Amino acid sequence: MKFLFRTFFKTVRLILGPALLLKERLTAPQGLVRAPEAQQAVDRQCRDLALYQFKTCPFCIKVRQEMRRLSLNIEQRDAQHEGEHRSALLAGGGKAMVPCLCIRDGQGNRRWLYESGDIIAYLRERFGS
Question: How far apart are CA 6 and CA 119, in angstroms?
């Protein structure tokens, strides 16, 4: 039975994944336009952020769309497959749930922010116009 569920959901992901990515491309919002100096300051602040995500996760797409709207150059780390990024997410955040925004402060401490709504609210508060 477990095999059937996995096969079913894997098939659904294979079919819906490309459609979700196409929709993301077609509905990409216009980015916020800032003065060059202001954008450079935002880019410097974004170096302390990393988004752990799956490419076709609808909640991750929602966060990436907001990042585009706010013109944020945040590193995106694929945590879907076993590897360095997934291990870091599990070790730091405690669970392999995405999207997850890793926020590093000036002292090198890390805060792990889960839930797309919370991440979007944080980004809007910090970088919104």
Answer: 29
User: Out of 2-11, 67-76, 87-96, which region has the weakest mean confidence (pLDDT)?
Assistant: 2-11
pLDDT digits (tens, 9 = 90+) for 48-73: 999 999 999 999 999 999 999 999 99
Q: How far is CA 76 from CA 57, 79, 99, 123, in A?
A: 13, 9, 10, 15
- Which tokens hold the place of 90? 């599990």
Dihedral sign for Cα atoms in the order 59, 116, 82, 24: positive
Decide the pairing of beta strands 100-104 and 49-53. antiparallel
Query: Which of residues 5 and 118 earns the better pLDDT score?
Result: 118
DSSP assigned state of 35 = -
Q: Global pTM?
A: 0.86
Give Dmax over CA atoms of the chain in angstroms.
57
Please tell us whether the domain made up of 37-127 is placed in CATH 3.40.30.10: yes
Q: For the chain, give every domain's residue range.
A: 37-127
